[in-house]
Amino acid sequence: MDITKRIKRRSLLIGIIITIIFFLLLINTYLIQTINATIYREQAAINWNSSYVLEPERGIIYDRNGERLAQNSNAYTVVAIISKKNPAHITDPVDVAQQLASILDMTEASIIALLTRNAYQVELRPGGWKIDKDKADRIRELKIPGIVL
Q: How far apart are alpha carbons 38 and 34 in whole angstroms?
């Protein structure tokens, strides 16, 4: 009999606590929706009307021992515009091949073969693919019309 009284008291106490929490939540909801509504509406308008660009930061990938596996670096691809429809196309493939062969570590014949294809543009692969900034700067200094990085 004593146990049933304790169970009833605990049940009543839990019921009262849940009821109080419910009414506190109800009062808080009323305060937010009616009394403080103008403040929240102004803050929301500021957030909705603002815009900014998030610049991604890519990082270095490490292995479990803390050694660097991969990192970001700029890589350039050498593209040759060979279509005569474009005013900035390559006019002399032999001259261009002579200038680029030593920089790209490719033979002149392989560059000429790429530059004489029937296409709008070609990538000068494998030597002109994912090159570093130094090679890219050397190619830019040549100022060859029709070569784009």
A: 8
pTM to 2 decimals? 0.52
Nearest Cα neighbor of 100 from 126, 127, 76 is 127
CA 69 – CA 62 distance, rounded (Å): 5
**Residues 63 and 70 sit within 8 Å (Cβ to Cβ):** no
pLDDT digits (tens, 9 = 90+) for 1-51: 688 899 999 999 999 999 999 999 999 999 999 999 999 999 999 999 988
Q: What is the spatial distance between Cα 55 and Cα 127, in angstroms, rounded to a whole number?
A: 32
Whole-number Å distance between alpha carbons of 95 and 123: 17
Decide: 103 and 124 in contact? Cβ < 8 Å.
no
- CA atoms lying within 13 Å on the CB side of residue 116: 11
